[in-house]
């Protein structure tokens, strides 16, 4: 996280809070930022925990954030949660389970995504990169001259 001081005074006592959200993301510890001089900036890491403050209703990738310091009012903003950052290590599915689950879902849940302009020189190396982000290979089939990949991933949701 990058914080910048564009004011004319030193800022200190930074705090952060998240509203209830689809994945229960919350700060694992207080925000650690040294006092910021005017015109200065500071980077900090904020460890997060899951399933602490879950919201009801449909899944939403927006995170509502409030940041405060001792000298200013609360700053409110939203940020988009990058889904792949939440993929868990237990997202691998057996092929039979994947097919059974796939067939049980209504057609309205199906999503296809084309990535124009992306050239994959090696399906195997691409699958290795995806696996490093906890997105796991299930199957591959040909559709004309294109490879169609089936992958599984899991995100926490109560």
TrEMBL record:
Where do the Beta-adaptin appendage C-terminal subdomain domain residues begin and end?
87-158
Q: Which domain of life is it from?
A: Eukaryota
Q: What is this protein called?
A: Beta-adaptin appendage C-terminal subdomain domain-containing protein
Q: Which GO terms describe its cellular component?
A: clathrin adaptor complex; endomembrane system
Where found? Endomembrane system
Instruction: Write out the coiled-coil annotation as residue ranges.
Output: none
In Gene Ontology terms, what is a biological process of this protein? intracellular protein transport
| Topology term for the membrane | Peripheral membrane protein
